[in-house]
Design brief:
Distance between the termini of chain B: 30 Å
Largest interface: A-B, 29 and 28 residues
Protein name (chain B): PadR family transcriptional regulator
Structural class of chain A: alpha+beta
CATH superfamily of chain B: Winged helix-like DNA-binding domain superfamily/Winged helix DNA-binding domain
Number of strands of chain B: 3
CATH topology of chain B: Arc Repressor Mutant, subunit A
Order of helices and strands of chain B: HEHHEEH
Helix content of chain A: 40-55%
Strand content of chain B: 5-15%
Number of helices of chain A: 28
Number of domains of chain B: 1
Strand order of the largest sheet of chain A: 4-5-10-7-9-8
Oligomer: heterodimer
CATH architecture of chain B: Orthogonal Bundle
Domain Transcription regulator PadR N-terminal (chain B): 16-89
Pfam families (chain B): PadR
Shape of chain B: elongated
Distance between the termini of chain A: 44 Å
Strand order of the largest sheet of chain B: 1-3-2
Chain lengths: 875, 115
């Protein structure tokens, strides 16, 4: 090989190295190559061998990486286009990830997990918070309801109103643009041809469809109820009844006392899950008007409709509410009136369920999780940046300005942050089906791709990434190059360090979440195991009705007898209510000796003479109903809460009257306050009336069973059922199960919080681990010297753990009071609740502290076990 | 002599502009001139000159042009602009001012230490 070939080979190799620096343009490379060739020539003339000349010239020129970095700062400062820059940051960021695999992967993983879970919870929370707000007219739709005063001076909400009320309101106030009334009739038998179906029936009117934005798949939404005999069905019902045929124009028969045929005029599309209303079949209210009017339902004596009104845009509901009293005065008797109110549709869900708080609760958790992930990221990033002192110093030397460094470092951080966030968003899509499965809750993330959410998501990612990058960057760019080069700058070990604040916040959030989960489960457990003053175990509820007529009653009585004959059955009772599922009917009553006072609004329940014995409910006064005393069917048993409202010392000598009437109930007994609904609610007054054993008013049989031989007993009960109703399968549940179902929401929220907490701890632990790796690296030398001087590994470990523990203790100062405030507020919503003691907090603190000790300790121990000599020699 | 790197970074601008004031020139020769002028005391990594040249170009203090050299190779030549000439004056003022300050300080110091 001659000299020229040798030179060309060196230059080609060098050029290839340079080409790897993507930001170096061909022109720059050509210019450098020209320089290199001149250097080589000069060195050759000085007498160097070709080989030496090439090597020396290349060395003099400097490394490709250095040249590239310097060029980049020039390019960045003066190039209008940022794209090549982003490309180069991409490469640098990737290089950093490769160089610092451990920290960078912890950083990205922590962020990814945090973002994914936080996003899922956040979207779910948002869906709950915006319940019923998908209707275009949400802001102008109001629920028309009443409040009544209770004897204790409180207010009681009554959702139902009189059928003609909405019409009268529309007549009286021109600002009302539409009215929509509902009657929820429950499961009703529907026939099409030979087939029978049980579907949920709602009565409503055209105005409802005008007012609400329920999607109509088929049919003319503005005219579906032109014909009184028309129904709108859901697409599921359409599929069930009509299969793939076009349902429009087809007829179905609804089994009222006399069957009525309706024409299908509309098919509803999928209603968002965060809607208070969902329909199987909507029947035109108009079709029942005549019959209900004849029965007296469609007047001012019966209050059973849910009325909504829509005001013209921007109208103030207050103007109406002020005039409601005059309106009601014309039509309603004083005892029935109450105070009419208007409630914005957005508040309706919470009014009904009291569960909107969970939306905010989960929202806070989602935010807390995001904060942990973000703090984690910012912290690890800062720690990592401090490790790059030397790089900064070199670049400052070559004239890189503070601004360049800020941009470079912030850009890198933002980029890394974006990777983590985008992976997190991707992960949330992957997890979505599991989330839905796990919590049985519908939701969708599709909206993230709509312009507004997408834009705010992207700007959020970039904004947070910038914030995470700016703190260490500003500190770094102020560093004095020479100090760093001489190694005189190190991390501050004492005094104010923002990193400590972030770690403290992380700890605080983790402790708050853990204690929140503990307290929620304590409360749920308390409610599930509390003594409810009746025995909920081993009571079967069979859903059944006797039916009208003597023949049916006899069949029913026979069924009761056959049940009682089953060896494992202790007792059988018929009623229209069971604890956990109490009747929603109310009755107005007055004490005979206080007829001037406002009437009392009590829950009204029909039971037989075996009810209290079967449920094991204790009497505090008087006696139970007696089947042998026919007059007992005009008598009643009330609970202690009812007694308290009456202010009676004893039932002796008192009578309950209907308002404005000479009739009433004699009270023959008082039972202990037993919990017939969720322990979230106080025990309300309730009046039980006796209807004999076989009344058609009963819709369930309560069967107390022996705990032993349950499966055999159940088989016998099922065969008894076949004798009663061979056409339908037996439909049963258990009282205790029914009760557990009441806490479904609490349990769902509890388990969501639990998962979020696992995630929060995981992310926080990742963060502690990352910081530990940094601390250990920083203090390796110090530890090695201490070790040489005779300190034991345990002592060294203590030194490392001390700082973390101090930060942790500081975090408790924030976490405990804040959590106490929030959880106490949550518990306030339960009539029967646990008291907040130190247990949950101690346990939560213990869990978080021990977890971080273990993680930090095992990592530090591994590092400390290295031979001190090797550490000391390395510098 | 071992100049601190920050001093080199700060002085590169007046040095380069000063050399270009004598006429258009290319990177290799500029470095050689600086080395000669300093009697070998200024040692740069050669490659670091080019980013500085490119920066001066972006700032509008110099312009560049590819020319064919004597032996047929392409070579990039730099020339100073009017803006660059003005910048030299400014740099001169700064450095002279610094020079004066340091001189005063040192003469003061030597007087104190001798007196």
């Amino acid at each position: 090989m001659d000299n020229q070939q040798l030179i060309e080979r060196h230059i080609t190799q060098w050029r290839q190295q340079l080409r790897k620096q993507k930001n170096l343009e061909d022109g720059v490379i050509a210019e450098l190559e020209d320089h290199l060739r001149q250097s080589i020539e000069r060195l050759q003339t000085k007498g160097c061998s070709v080989e030496d000349a090439c090597k020396k010239a290349i060395e003099e020129l400097g490394t490709p990486a250095d040249i590239s970095e310097e060029e980049r700062s020039v390019q960045f400062r003066y190039n209008g286009s940022y794209w090549p820059l982003l490309g180069s940051y991409f490469l640098i960021a990737l290089r950093n990830i490769r160089h610092r695999k451990f920290i960078a992967s912890i950083n990205v993983i922590g962020l990814t997990l945090g973002v994914a879970v936080s996003l899922l919870l956040g979207v779910y929370a948002y869906d709950i918070i915006t319940y019923d707000q998908f209707h275009e007219n949400t802001e102008d739709i109001y629920f028309l309801y009443r409040t009544r005063l209770t004897p204790e001076g409180g207010k009681m909400d009554v959702s139902d109103t009189w059928a003609p009320l909405a019409e009268e309101v529309q007549k009286a106030f021109p600002s009302v643009s539409s009215i929509g009334r509902f009657v929820f009739a429950g499961e009703t038998t529907i026939r099409h041809g030979e087939q029978e179906y049980n579907e949920g029936v709602t009565f409503s009117e055209q105005g409802m469809f005008d007012m609400f934005s329920f999607p109509m798949l088929h049919g003319d939404k503005g005219r579906v109820f032109e014909n009184p005999r028309s129904v709108v069905i859901s697409s599921e019902v359409a599929k069930r009844i009509f299969g793939d045929e076009d349902p429009l124009g087809k007829t179905i028969e609804v089994a009222f006392n006399e069957p009525v045929t309706y024409e299908v005029t509309g098919v509803l599309g999928k209603i968002p899950f965060n809607s208070s209303f969902d329909f199987d079949i909507v029947i035109n209210l108009e079709s029942r008007k005549q019959q209900w009017t004849e029965l007296g339902y469609f007047g001012w004596d019966a209050s059973f409709m849910f009325s909504f009104i829509q005001l013209q845009e921007g109208q103030d509901p207050k103007a109406l509410v002020e005039q409601f009293p005059q309106l009601v005065e014309k039509f309603v008797t004083p005892s029935e009136r109450g105070t009419l109110e208007l409630m914005p549709l957005a508040d309706y869900y919470d009014f009904n369920t009291g569960q909107q708080q969970y939306g905010y609760f989960l929202g806070y958790i989602s935010f807390g999780l995001l904060l942990i992930a973000f703090f984690n990221f910012a912290n690890l990033n800062a720690a990592q940046s401090f490790g790059r002192f030397k790089e900064v110093a070199v670049r400052k030397t070559f004239g890189a300005g503070g601004k360049d460094l800020v941009l470079q470092f912030t850009g890198e951080t933002t980029f890394l942050f974006a990777i983590g966030s985008v992976l997190g968003i991707g992960l949330s899509f992957v997890l979505l089906p599991y989330f839905i499965d796990l919590f049985g809750q519908q939701m969708s993330l599709a909206f993230l791709f709509e312009p507004m959410p997408l834009a705010s998501l992207l700007s959020g990612i970039i904004g947070l990434g910038l914030v995470a990058g700016i703190y260490p960057t500003l500190t770094l760019s102020k560093l004095r190059a020479c100090e760093v080069m001489h190694g005189s700058t190190s991390l501050k070990r004492s005094g104010f360090d923002p990193k400590n604040i972030l770690v403290t916040c992380q700890f605080a959030i983790a402790v708050m979440l853990v204690s929140a989960v503990l307290i929620m489960y304590q409360q749920i457990n308390f409610m599930k195991t509390a003594d409810m003053n009746f025995d909920p175990d081993n009571v079967l509820i069979i859903n059944a009705r006797s039916g009208e007529g003597e023949e049916n009653e006899q069949r029913w009585a026979a069924f009761r007898n056959s049940l009682e004959a089953v060896p494992g059955v202790k007792s059988v009772s018929a009623s229209n209510s069971a604890p956990g599922r109490y009747s929603g009917s109310f009755v107005l009553v007055q004490s005979e000796d206080a007829r001037d006072r406002a009437p009392l609004d009590w829950r009204f329940v029909s039971v037989d003479d075996k009810y209290f014995a079967t449920m094991d409910i204790e009497f505090v006064e008087g006696r139970d109903f007696d089947i042998d005393m026919r007059s007992d069917q005009r008598k009643s048993v009330i609970n202690q809460a009812a007694m308290k409202q009456l202010g009676w010392a004893s039932v002796e000598g008192h009578k309950l009257m209907f308002p404005d009437s000479d009739e009433g109930f004699e009270v023959i007994g008082v039972v202990k306050d037993f919990n017939f609904s969720s322990l979230a609610n106080a025990v309300e007054p309730v009046i039980h009336v006796f209807r004999g054993r076989n009344s058609n008013r009963y819709n369930m049989l309560l069967v107390r069973l022996n705990a032993a031989g349950l499966s055999e007993t159940m088989a016998q009960i099922e065969s008894a059922w076949k004798g009663f109703d061979a056409n339908h399968p037996i439909d049963y549940t258990f009282v205790d199960q029914q009760f557990q179902n009441l806490y479904e929401t609490e349990e769902r929220i509890g388990s969501m919080t639990l998962y979020a907490t696992f995630m929060a701890i995981l992310v926080a632990v990742l963060g502690i681990l990352g910081l530990a790796s940094f601390t250990v690296a920083q203090r390796m030398k110090e530890m090695a010297i201490r070790k040489v001087l005779g300190a034991s590994v345990q002592q060294l470990l203590m030194i490392l753990l001390k700082q973390t523990t101090l930060l942790f203790l500081a975090s408790l100062l924030i976490a405990v009071p804040l959590n106490y405030y929030v959880m106490n507020d949550w518990l306030e919503g339960f009539a029967f609740r646990i008291n907040l003691g130190p247990f949950a907090y101690l346990l939560a603190a213990g869990i978080v502290m021990v977890t971080s000790w273990v993680v930090l300790g095992s990592y530090a121990l591994k590092s400390l076990k290295t031979n001190p000599a090797s550490t000391l020699r390395s510098e | 002599m071992d100049f601190s790197k920050s001093l080199i970074a700060a002085s590169s601008k007046p040095l380069i502009l000063g050399i270009l004031q004598q006429g258009p020139n290319y990177g290799y020769d500029i470095i050689q001139q600086i080395k000669t002028l300093s009697g070998g005391q200024l040692e740069w990594a050669d490659g670091m000159l080019y980013p500085v040249l490119h920066r001066l170009e972006k700032e509008g203090l110099v312009t560049s042009q590819w020319n064919q050299s004597d032996n047929g190779r392409h070579r990039k030549y730099y020339a100073i602009t009017e803006l660059g000439k003005a910048a030299i004056h400014q740099e001169q003022e700064h450095w002279l001012a610094m020079h004066h300050v340091l001189q005063k300080l040192w003469s003061l110091n030597s007087k104190t230490s001798h007196g």
